[in-house]
Amino acid sequence: MPMSDNVFTPGFLELIEGIDDGVTAQEAELSGPWKIVETDSGFALLRSYEDPEDGRRPEGLLDDFPTALRFLAVLPAVARPPLLKVDAEPAGGWYTVHSEGQAVGRLRVFHDRFVQAAQVAESLSRSPLALAALLLSAGPLAIREVGRLLEKTLTTTSPSGTPWVPPTEFPPRS
Which domain holds residue 21? Predict the structure, then answer.
């Protein structure tokens, strides 16, 4: 008896085809968990339970490992509804940015790509795996520099009391 790739019968799967996916469909489609597998054609981005020999096309086929890591890292950001939104109309000369229904800041100019980029950063900051994949994709020099920056940042307090290193205080390379 041939193995199926789904526990549901073909008849049942056909029956549910007419049902709307709803608002969570894209998040479910891209939620993973994901893995990267080296193949003869490059680095395949697959769900953890998929195999390159399954005959299905991977979510992505990337030429090198660092690029595959970057795509793995941003999948959580594109899988879910936006965490950040910006008002289309200014209020008091500012475009208000919202996160989860709360105002979190203002922008001088409406720029949706700016907010989309912040959406990716927000998503990366919520996923240790994604953040690690992005850092690993940057390579050893960047990782060392991040380590230096974190060391300096965590041991230095700015005049405002916020732990961050102004560029003038960043330690020189030894």
Answer: 10-138
Per-residue pLDDT, 1? 42
Tally of domains within the chain:
2
Phi and psi at residue 133, to the nearest 5°:
-60, -40
pTM, rounded to two decimals: 0.72
pLDDT one-digit tens code per residue, 108-120:
999 888 988 998 9
> Do 48 and 118 lie in a common domain?
yes
Rounded-to-integer distance, Cα 47 and Cα 38, Å: 14
Residue 77 lies in a domain: yes
In a domain, 5, yes or no: no
CB-CB contact of 30 with 78 (8 Å): yes
Q: Tell whether 36 and 92 lie within a shared domain.
A: yes
The pLDDT of residue 2 is: 47
Give dist(CA 36, CA 63) in Å, integer.
12
Distance CA 109, CA 69 (A): 32
